[in-house]
Amino acid sequence: TSAVTGSKVHSLKILGSRRNFHCFASTDACDSALVSKLPPSAFRSSSQLSASHAPVFAKLNKRDGAGGWSPLASKSSQWLEVDLGERTTITAVSTQGRYGSSDWLTSYLLMFSDTGHNWKQHRLEDSIGSFSGNINADSVVQHKLQQTAVARFLRLLPMGWNPGGRIGLRLEVYGCPYSESPASANPSAWTSRPDHRRLVSLGSLLDDQQWHVLAMECHAAQCNLTVDQHTETVNLPPHFHHWRIQQGNVTFTCSHQTLAVAATFPGPRSFLQLPGAGALTLVPTAGVSVGLNFRTWNRDGLLFTFRLPRQGGVVWVFLSDARLCLRIQKADRVLLDLQAGSDLDDGQWHSVDLKSRGGHLSISVDKDDMAHSSPSFTVAIEKDLFVGGRQMYDVIVPYTRSRFECLVVEGCPAEDERQEDCRNAFASFQGCLRQLTLGRQQVDLIMVQQRMLGTYSNLLIDMCGIIDRCSPSRCEHGGPCTQSWTHFHCNCSDSGYGGATCHSSVYEQSCEAYKHNGNTSGYFYIDVDGSGPIKPQLVYCNMTEENTWMEIHHNTTELTPVRPSSGERQHLVPLHYPASEEQLLAVIGQSDHCQQEMAYHCRKSRLLNTPEGSPLSWWIGGVAPGGRQNYWAGAQPGSQQCACGLQGDCLDPKRYCNCDADSDSGLLVHKESLPVRSLVLGDVWRPGSEATYRVGPLRCHGDKNFWNAAFFATETSYLHFPTFHGELSADISFLFKTGAPSGVFLENLGIRDFIRIELQSPTRVLFSFDVGNGPLEVGVDSSSPLNDERWHRVRVERNVKEASLRLDTMPAATRQAPTDGHIHLQLNSQLFIGGTASRQKGFRGCIRSLQLNGATMDLEERARITPGVRPGCPGHCDSYGALCRNHGRCMERNNGFHCDCDQSAYDGVFCHAELSAIFKPTTSVHYAFQMEASERGGGNVSAKLPSSILSDLSLRAENVSLSFRTSQSPALLLFVSSYQREYLALLINKHGKLEVHYKLHGNKEAEVLRSQAKGLADGRLHTVVVITVHSNLNWIVPSFVTESEEVDPNLIRLSSLGFSGCLSVVRFNSVSPLKEALLRPHGGTVHISGPLVRSNCGSPAASSPYAAHNTPHLSGERLFHPSSSGQPLVNAMRTDSALIGGVIAVIIFVTVAGLAVAAKFLYRRKETYRNQEVKSGHRDESQDLAFEHQTDSQNTSGQNPKEYFI
């Protein structure tokens, strides 16, 4: 039973035995000419120019009379009506101009009816109400109806005609008799149950007194319910095992009810002017009584207005924010305001009643929601009532017509449109009105239509032309649809999709795509099929390794002990994923590799027994509901073994799993068996049995779609695919790179429709298409050339509302679709990629990741078998190399790139993560170049040096950088020494200023450079960059450093104090000592003494210099000061929280030989310093290096470091 309430099918209840229902009218060979055989009485018209221009002469290809029908006046209110004699299926309409004349139609509307009243407009498409007409008087233009109409009466309304002639028409209608018989049922004929619930809701405006087609087709537990042309699929609840049908009091006739005549107000020029109640009843009235029914989608609009007697003011009844309002206004003063009702813009019929008598005024909506007042003045209609419209004449200076003074609110009449005092006061009412009453007398709208009562303009009488633009909804992916009379709007805010119809996903399709946008590890929403039906899902993107991993966790990812219930022979462990089944399978399908870790630790809890025996435990995996898997992680499917059994190294050679004696773990890598859905553990009930298990998250890397590419070698090469289907909505996205100035990326043709995307010039991408309204273009211009051999992204979307084009990160360009135009894109040729059907203007270059409506086109597969096109496209670092920061090097891969951070002091997927450590006074890090031992041994040093070191040593400049936080002054930050007894020291003096001490070969004394910045020992982050520039470099590779008197004793005494604070991203050329100490402490190049705690203290956001958090941080760009003059440069800069502290760049114009860390030198000088400290009590030579340990956080008096520190 389908229960209809209001205008929607609210519920579907299936009862009784299982069978199929489907009612339809056959249209096979339904193309007979219907008009040519009709008698003269079957034709009517609004008027005729003469007897020879009568409607009976409006037959196709006939020359009788004046050769066709012409009305008395050529106006859009004219019409021609044909009575087909019975309900008929109408499939096509043909038109022709009047023979031998200049009279023909250029456009028209079609109306159908079963009774000759209550007409229903037939639309060529959902958004097209008018049909195109003729271009001369003799040619025939035929329109085949996409949706056949069933009616007895047809009415044609001229909308446009030849400007040099009049309205002239001959026509023919094609179809066949409609054979279905109507049935009316008593409510007792259908059975129902009280526990019914709504399963589906569809259809709209079903209370329009028109015939509607209802069809239901069921198979097993799934039913398709169709109302008119809209179909919804219903999955029946499990308790519907069967349904039965009972036939009761059914009469196969349909009684005709009296139909209410409606009028449609389609636009702002629509108005209806009626005389007051006294003119209708011929009896003067002392009050007012106005009633009407209306339906609309608009929240605002003027319903009616009239003037009060004796210039008492004006009464306005209007909609405001979907509420009914009554306002009485005199001049600019509001005398009364009343409100009633709410949500009156729902498209349903609502009644309005205004009554005033005996000093009491009331206005009600739908008979129950009422507002009332007792005004001190009389409320009555002075002369006329004006209904609908938007424009009005000024209240203070009313416009005077020929016979009486009136206030025209429902739109200016045609002859008054230029009147200066015709202004906009209220929004126009757009909707339908019916059952209009004045003083308890119903207004006959048919008399109004015949110009026998009142006057009107731009009205469609005897029909309600309301359209539900949200049924079916054009909003995709669950976006709510709202509408007005002329437009609809999709709210995409909570859908995960964007665009005018919520079509295109706002998320990327994989972690790989997020990485190439410059993102780092974190949680992201991914939409694996773009604009397809699969919803976005939240995953974790792990970008800390060379591969970008997508991780989907479940409810049991930690090591979990098995606790079987009493009497349980098998322990079931179900795994629940937050992603849906289709999401999981799509992720696995598009990834290059997927895996899940699985571990089982046991004691007296066997796992698989032997390959010959029955397995004691197994797991379920693969496509839902999943298949039983009798192998364990690391083995092959179906082997009934674990990894050790496959490798032959199980602890018990008689077993094929360690966990029959110990433990088993490994990775499941066969995608067809993933994801793991549950574990079934059998040998867990014996006395003394113990077991724990762990199933890791589903982890996948690689994106087959993102890197799918093809190279088009010539302008005549192309790939072709099947026809692209995007009738109502379509999105296309791809990346391209080229050196050519122009070329067509994509083209698909139809008979008249087409779609094309091209590089029109080196700086312009153009999207052009035609859906029957003429070619439309959307272009985006780039400020820089696009033929730069770098990847550029193009995203195109076309829907029923607009077309848009987005290039890279530039704002999208949009083009609105015509409000009343074609919306279906009809293509029928092959889809050409990289060229056109004419093989002209082809594209030369690379196209990658081409997706149409979320589906990836396999360019590589087609390219392998197509001459002139090659699969794949290298050269990704040209486009993505800038993502590698802080001296990271971009390294090419077949599918993408990765950042090599070996020569960077930073870490992370883009060499962006700062590496910091907390130093205590007893902490030291000694970095030794690997060539020290070789030099001492007299070997060939160049042959033993790493290539990166040799590259650095052959440069003509050195680059030393670090960041620090400390509250200690003075403090030695860095000491670098060479085998030639040269050194460079970076320190903070007792005034908190930065100093650089350097001594070169041949110089007797060290030079000192001081910055102007003070207070650097303030616990905030400061960054230092020291750049040395030199000439004619002769490198001497450093060897073991012996004791020397060349080092300033003050520096030796300063180093003994130790350093308390934070050091971060320490770098000397390509060598990063602190990074080596933190990531590879046992690599042989570093020696660490004392506590070295990794921290994020080098992050500008770190509030405490001693915070030991390991959270990755994306640091900002370091300031670098290049110098071309060769002069020393010392700069200091302070900023706020964006980059706390300063950046000091020191450029030293000197010649520096090889530099190395002099840890051993300082260590050997430690004892010498102790003796000197005891024997000598003289003051230090440098007043700025007074050895008071001015740290607020720690007191290190009496302590001497055991090693030198960085």
TrEMBL record:
PANTHER family in the record: CONTACTIN-ASSOCIATED PROTEIN-LIKE 4 (PTHR15036:SF40), PIKACHURIN-LIKE PROTEIN (PTHR15036)
Location of the EGF-like domain: 466-503, 874-912
A Pfam family that the UniProt record links to this protein: Laminin_G_2
Domain of life where this protein originates: Eukaryota
Family of the protein in this entry: Belongs to the neurexin family.
Transmembrane segments annotated in the record for this chain: 1138-1163
Gene Ontology CC entries for this record: membrane
Disordered: annotated segments: 1172-1206
UniProt keywords, alphabetically: Disulfide bond, EGF-like domain, Membrane, Repeat, Signal, Transmembrane, Transmembrane helix
Phylogenetic placement of the source organism: Eukaryota, Metazoa, Chordata, Craniata, Vertebrata
Main localisation: membrane
This protein's name: Contactin-associated protein-like 4
UniProt domain F5/8 type C: residue ranges: 23-176
Biased composition (Basic and acidic residues): 1172-1191
Cell compartment(s), UniProt: Membrane
InterPro entries: ConA-like_dom_sf (IPR013320), EGF (IPR000742), FA58C (IPR000421), Fibrinogen-like_C (IPR036056), Fibrinogen_a/b/g_C_dom (IPR002181), Galactose-bd-like_sf (IPR008979), Laminin_G (IPR001791), Neurexin-related_CASP (IPR050372)
Span of domain Fibrinogen C-terminal: 502-554
The keyword Disulfide bond is assigned to this record: yes
Segments forming domain Laminin G: 261-464, 708-873, 932-1097
